[in-house]
C-alpha cells in the first residue's frame, strides 16, 4: 500500500511544495501514520515552479498517472478538495486526508482527517503543522516554502494574505537565509511572467479553475509584470484561444484575468456578449475592445469568482 500526497491538477508552486513540506513532517513524525508518504504531481511543473526547483537544485516530484494508483493505496489531497481540481478519475473513497486553504466542496462517504485554514497558502498551513510537531525544514526546503507562500499571496499583497503568512514566511526566510525577500519576490514574479514558452491556448489554460455556478464558468488567470505589453501584443490570439478552450472544456462562460502583480491590477479579457453582460454586472465599468478593467483585484478565489457567481444568480 502506498500513500500519495497530491496537489491539484495544473499545479502551482504551493500545490507542489506544500505536499513536500508535509512529506517531511510525516517522514519525521511517525505518529501521523504516513511515514511512507510519497509526493507526486499530476501535471508537469509550471515555468515558475520549474525555475525555483532549478534555482535551489531540487529534483521535482514524479508525475503520477491514475493507473499507478492501486485500489488499496491512500491519497492525501493538498491545496485542493473539489472534484474538478483532483486527478481525473481518482476514487474518492481512497482520500484519507485533506490539507487545504480553499472553500470546501466535497461530499465524501468516509470520515477523514481534515485541516483547512483560510490562510494565504497551503504551505503556511504545512509549516504551522511542522512547527507544532517540532520539525524544522532544511535550508533548501525552507527556500521553496517561502517561495510558495510568496507566490500564492502575491508577495503578501493578495487579499487572501493573513498575519500567519507574514509571520511564518519571515521565519522561513531566516531558515532559508534569504535576507532580501522583496528581491526574491521579484525574481519569482519574473519567472511567473515568463510566458514565452507557452502557446496562446497554453496561456489561457496555464492557471484555470472551473466553477459550477448556475452556468459552468472557467476563470483563467495570467499573473504578469507586463500586463499592457501582453494585451497589446497577444489580445487577438488569446481571444481566439479562449473560444477554442470554451468549446473544449464544455463551459458556458470563459474569463481570462490578466493580473499585473506589481501594479496590483486585473484586466478581464471578455470573449463575447454573454461574458460581457455578466462581467459588467459583477464588477461595474464598461468593456472596451474586449477588455474590462476591474481595478485592484488579484485574488480569483476571493475577489473575482464570488462577484461573477453573484452576477449569475
Ligand atoms: Mn494554494
Alpha-carbon distance between the termini? 45 Å
Given the helix and strand composition, which structural class is it?
alpha/beta
**In order across it, which strands form the biggest sheet?**
3-2-1-4-5-6
Bound molecules: manganese (II) ion
Q: Compute the number of helices.
A: 10
Portion of residues in helices? 40-55%
For the secondary structure, the number of strands is 11
CATH class of the largest domain: Alpha Beta
CATH superfamily of the largest domain, please?
inorganic pyrophosphatase (n-terminal core)
**Please, what is the average pLDDT?**
96
Query: Can you tell me the CATH architecture of the largest domain?
Result: Alpha-Beta Complex
Rg from alpha-carbon coordinates: 19 Å
